[in-house]
Amino acid sequence: MEHYGFISILPPIIAIILAIKTKNVLFSLFVGLYFGATALAGWNPILGFSNLIPNYIYAQIASDSNVQSLTNLLIIGAFVALIGATGGAAAFARFAGKMINTKRKAELSMWFGGIFVWFSDSANSLLVGPIFQPIGDKYKVSREKFAYVLDATSSPICSLVPIISWGVYIMGLIQVELDALPAYSMTSWDIFVGAVPFQFYSILTLLMVGYVAYTQFDYGPMLAAQKRAEGGLALREGAVPLRNTKEAKLPEGVVPQAKAVLLPLAALLIVMFTVFFMNGFPTASLGGSVIRQGISLGFITGGILAAVISIRSKIFTVKEAETTVFEGMKDMVYLMVLMVFAWSLGSVTKDLGTAYYIMDVTKDFLNPAFLPAIMFIVGCLMSLPTGSSWGPYAILMPIGIPIAIQMGAPVLVTVAAIINGGLFGDHCSPLSDTTLLASMGAACDHIDHFKTQFPYALTVAAVACVMYIFAGLYQSSAILIPGIAVLFVLIYLLHKISLKKYTTKKVTAE
Description:
Blueprint: H1 10-22, H2 25-40, H3 45-62, H4 64-85, H5 88-96, H6 103-116, H7 121-138, H8 143-152, H9 155-158, H10 165-179, H11 188-195, H12 200-215, H13 221-230, H14 259-278, H15 288-312, H16 318-352, H17 354-362, H18 371-383, H19 390-407, H20 411-428, H21 433-441, H22 446-474, H23 480-503
C-alpha cells in the first residue's frame, strides 16, 4: 500500500478548488493533472510535462472501454443533433404537454425516464436529457434541477443491478476474496443480491429525487436556482452549458412532428435490447463491451431513421443531414476532452496512491462493530476527490470482506457500504464522468450542477452513514423504513429553513 503521503491527495483537491473558483473545469483538470505528473517525475516540471501525453492521456485513450465510450459519445452527439434539427424534441414536448402540464409532472417524468434507462449510467443522461430538456424549460425547471435528476438516476440505479457491467465488476471483486476463503458458503451472486437492500445511499438517492420532484421541497443553492427559473431563467446569466440547445429552424410550411423523436427512439431501444437479449439478457450478466455495443448500434439505427424521416419530410437534404451529423459530433469534442482529462487525473491519483493514503490515515479507526459505517465513510473520502467508484471498490473489497468474515461483522452490510461509499464520489464529484454527462444531458453549467447537487448528496450520505451504524449492529434492512422517514423529514425542514432565507432577500439571476 505505497503512497506519496499528503501529496497524493493534492492533485484532485487542486482540481476541485480551481474548478469551483475559476468555473473552468478543463483548465482545473489540467492543472491538477500536471501537478500530479510533476510530483511523480520527482518534481521535475519538464519531465512531468513530457510524461503527460504518453503515460496518462494516450494511456487512457488506448483503453478499450474508454475508446468505446468516446466513440459512443460521437455517435450519440450525431443522434442528438439529428433529433434537434428535426424539431422533434419540441414537438414531443408539445405532445407530452397533454399529460405533462405542471412543473411537478415535468420533474416526475424526468425521474421516471431516468429510472427507465437502468442499463447504463452514461446512456441515462445522453438519452433522457435532450428529450426532456424542452419540457423542463417549458415548465420552468432549472437546468441545475434537471441535471440533478439525471445524475441521481444514473449511477445509483446501476449499482443495484447485477446483470450489467457494474454488477459484473463488483461480483468479480467479491469472487476473488471468496476464492481465498473456501470455507465461506455464499457465492458472489448471493452476496451482491443480498447486499442490495442495504445499499442505503443508492436507494435513498433514488427516492429523494421522486420526493423533491413531487413535493417541490428544494433547499440551498437548488432552491435559489429553482426560484430563478420561475422568473424565466433556466440558466444563470453567464453560465456555460455543456450542450448546444439552439432551436431548430425548419423550412417554411414544414410542421415538426413528435414521430421524428418517438420512432427513432423506439428503433434505438429495440436494437439496443435485441443486442442485450442475443447476449443472454436477462438470465446472464452483460459485460461492459456488450452494453456499449448495444448502445452504439441502437443510436446509429435511431440516427439513420431520424435522418430518413427528416429527408422524406423535406426538413433537410442528404447533404444537410451529413452536416448535422458532424455538427453534433463536434459538439461532443469538449466533453470528450473533459472526460479524457478526468480519466487521466484518476490515473495520476492511482499512481500517487491517493486511495491508499486515505486508507492508511483512517486504518486506526477500523472497528468490526462499526465496519460498514467506516467502510462507507472511507469509500466516500476515496471516491470524492477522484470521481471514481471502481477504484475504491478494487481497494476496499479485499480489505472489507476478509475483515468482515474473520471478525464476525455483517458481510452483506459491509459490501453494500463499500459499494455506496464508492458510489458517492461517482455520483457527485465534479471530476466524475457521470456528473459531466449529467451536465451535458441537461445542457447545464457543470460547476452550477455540482454546487446545487452536492448539498443533496451530503444530506443522503449523512442519513445513510447513521443507517449503516444501526445496520451493522442489528443486520436488518428494516432500518430502511425509519431511514426514509428521517430523510423526508430532514428535507422538509431544510426546505423550510431555505425558504425563509430566500424569501427575505431577492433571488437574482447571479
